[in-house]
Amino acid sequence: MNRCTGQPAERGAAVVRSRLVSVAAVVVLALSGCAYYVPAPTVVPGAPASFDRSFSAASGAMRDQGLAISVEDRSSGTIVGKAQTGTVTASVRQQADGSVRVQFDASGLRDTDLINRVSRSYDQRMGR
Fold it and tell me: Which helix (H) or strand (E) holds 15?
């Protein structure tokens, strides 16, 4: 007999075990909610760019400069962005040596510096 509770000793031990199991379950559930973040891959300057990374950077650069993307065709490597007064087209091509060539062309633009801003934004996105 437990002198403090007046319950049989076996029942007191069962209550303690039950509470320990409950606490352990709460700890396990709390730890299962923890997030683990994998760091983003480091961009190595001078490393060859992949087609996907270059295509995404070209598309993002055009959006950065306020162009509305009307065509984004990864299979042909073509992105067309519309400005108020004209169009900017990006052409992303995989070369035979494995390198990637990105070219921006403009037509009908009044803002002659827009193509330069798109190019600078592309370079920034590529870590250059």
Answer: helix 9-32
